[in-house]
TrEMBL record:
PANTHER family, per database record: EXPRESSED PROTEIN, PLANT_T7A14-6 PROTEIN
InterPro entries xref list: DUF1068
Name this polypeptide is given: Uncharacterized protein
């Protein structure tokens, strides 16, 4: 009976040792997986930051382009008004569209 108790206690100790080793192994695996996840998260943050910088540059470029388009549009509008004014003055002084001038007096 004592021998059986001794064997039983040794089996129990071996079982506990095996469980403890399994727990340590699982902890080690979990730590490695966490380390890999942390690395991937850091890489993802870096990539997201790069994309954000590119998006900011793109938005800035679009704003600059839009401002230039608006200025060009305003300049064109002013030129069209000025052209219309000069054309009106020329018509008031007898100019007709399509009329040819003689170069004889040059």
């Amino acid at each position: 009976m004592r021998q059986e108790q001794g064997v039983s206690k040794e089996v129990e100790k071996n079982f506990i040792d095996l469980l403890a080793e399994e727990v340590r192994q699982k902890e080690s695996e979990a730590e490695e997986k966490q380390r890999i996840a942390d690395i991937k998260l850091l890489e993802a943050k870096k990539i997201a930051s790069q994309y954000q910088k590119e998006a900011d540059k793109c938005n800035s470029g679009m704003e600059t382009c839009e401002e230039a388009r608006e200025r060009a549009e305003a300049t064109l509008e002013n030129q069209m008004k000025e052209t219309a004014l000069w054309e009106l003055r020329a018509r008031q002084r007898g100019w007709k569209e399509g009329a040819k001038k003689s170069r004889a007096h040059f």
